[in-house]
Design brief:
Layout: H1 6-12, H2 40-60, H3 64-90, H4 100-128, H5 130-134, H6 141-173, H7 180-188, H8 190-206, H9 210-235, H10 248-264, H11 266-278, H12 282-310
Helix pairs in contact: 2-6, 3-4, 3-6, 4-6, 4-8, 4-9, 4-11, 6-8, 6-12, 7-11, 8-9, 8-11, 8-12, 9-10, 10-11, 11-12
C-alpha cells in the first residue's frame, strides 16, 4: 500500500502543492481585533503636523528669522534712545507709553516677514516641482494651508520671545516702565498678524512663479505704506498752502482707504490693537481680535480656492 506524499495530500485537499514556510498558515491572517483604519481627518491632522514641524525646523535653522528679530530690536532701541533724548532736552520726567512704538515696530516687522515667507512658501515649492510630489501623499489643499498657517503663527511666537524680553530688559536698564497692558496686547497680537499670513498664502497660491509672488507682495506692501504715509503728509500740510484745496479730494480718498485698512491691513491691526490694549479698551480690543481672525480665515479660504484653481504644476 503506497503512502500518499505530502504534496499529494495538499493537492487532494485543494492546495497548490507549493511548499509553505514553517509557521505560516494556508489561510490569510485575520485582522487584529479592535484595530481601526485611520480616518481621513486623522490622516489630515497627521500630515498637517508633519508639514508644520518641517517648516518650523527650516525657519529655526535659517537666518531670516533671527535677522528680523535683530532689526526689530535695533529699531526699538533707537526709538527708546530718542525718547530718552527728548526727556533729557525738555527736562520732563514723564514719558507716555515709552515702549509702545518699539513693540509696534517689532510686531509690524514680524507681520511683514511672515507675509513674505508665506508668499514664497507655495510658489517656490511649485517652481521646484516639490508641490506635485507632495500631493501624491495624503495631502490636500486644506492640510497644506493649515500647516503653513500654524508654522507662521509658531514663528511669530518665536519672534516675540526673542524680541519682547530684550525690550523689557532695555526698559529695566534705563528705568522705563513696561506696562502689563502692553504685554497683554502682545499675547493677543497673533490675531492681528493672521491676515498677513492669509494674504501671503493667497498670493503664493495664485501666482504663477515665486518671482511673481514676491513682486505682488512688494506692490501690496508699498501701496499700504503709501496710503498711510500719504494721508499723514496731506493732513500735516498747512491750510494756507496753495495746494491745500486742490488736494482735498485726494485727501478724502486716502482717508477712506486708510479707514478701510484699519480693519483689513495687518500693519494697521497691529498698531490699533496694541493701542486699544494699552488703553484698556476691552471692547475695541475684542473687535480687533475678531477682525484679525476673521480676516485670516477669509484669506485662507481664498488661498484654498486659488490653490485648487491654479493647481500644482509650474
Amino acid at each position: 500500500m503506497k503512502t500518499a506524499s505530502r504534496g499529494g495530500r495538499r493537492k487532494a485537499e485543494g492546495g497548490s502543492g507549493a511548499p509553505v514556510p514553517n509557521g505560516v498558515a494556508d489561510h490569510p491572517i485575520p485582522p487584529t481585533p479592535g484595530a481601526r483604519r485611520p480616518t481621513p481627518s486623522s490622516l489630515r491632522r497627521r500630515v498637517t503636523a508633519t508639514i508644520a514641524r518641517q517648516e518650523i525646523r527650516d525657519a529655526v535653522f535659517g537666518w531670516p528669522l533671527y535677522l528680523t528679530a535683530a532689526v526689530g530690536v535695533l529699531i526699538g532701541t533707537l526709538l527708546v534712545y530718542n525718547v530718552l533724548q527728548a526727556v533729557g532736552e525738555s527736562g520732563l520726567q514723564i514719558v507716555g507709553r515709552p515702549l509702545y512704538g518699539s513693540v509696534v515696530v517689532v510686531a509690524s516687522l514680524a507681520a511683514v516677514f511672515l507675509m513674505g515667507w508665506a508668499a514664497l512658501s507655495i510658489a517656490r515649492s511649485r517652481d521646484q516641482g516639490a508641490l506635485r510630489v507632495l500631493f501624491f501623499a495624503p495631502v490636500d489643499a486644506v492640510s497644506l494651508l493649515a500647516a503653513h498657517a500654524l508654522a507662521a503663527l509658531a514663528m511669530y511666537a518665536l519672534l516675540m520671545l526673542l524680541t519682547v524680553p530684550a525690550l523689557a530688559l532695555l526698559a529695566w536698564l534705563v528705568n522705563l516702565p513696561f506696562s502689563p497692558l502692553l504685554l497683554l496686547g502682545v499675547l493677543v497680537s497673533p490675531a492681528f498678524v493672521a491676515p498677513a499670513v492669509g494674504i501671503g498664502l493667497f498670493l503664493s497660491a495664485i501666482a504663477g512663479t515665486a518671482r511673481g509672488a514676491m513682486f505682488t507682495f512688494g506692490v501690496v506692501v508699498v501701496v499700504a505704506l503709501a496710503i498711510q504715509f500719504g494721508y499723514t503728509a496731506l493732513v500735516q500740510s498747512p491750510p494756507d498752502s496753495p495746494y491745500y484745496d486742490a488736494l482735498l479730494f485726494l485727501r478724502d480718498v486716502l482717508r477712506t482707504a486708510r479707514d478701510a485698512l484699519r480693519w483689513i491691513s495687518p500693519l494697521a491691526l497691529v498698531g490699533e490693537g496694541l493701542d486699544a490694549a494699552l488703553r484698556a479698551n476691552w471692547r475695541e480690543l475684542g473687535r480687533y481680535v475678531i477682525a484679525g481672525f476673521a480676516g485670516g480665515a477669509v484669506w485662507l479660504a481664498l488661498a484654498g480656492w486659488a490653490l485648487r484653481r491654479r493647481g500644482v504644476l509650474p
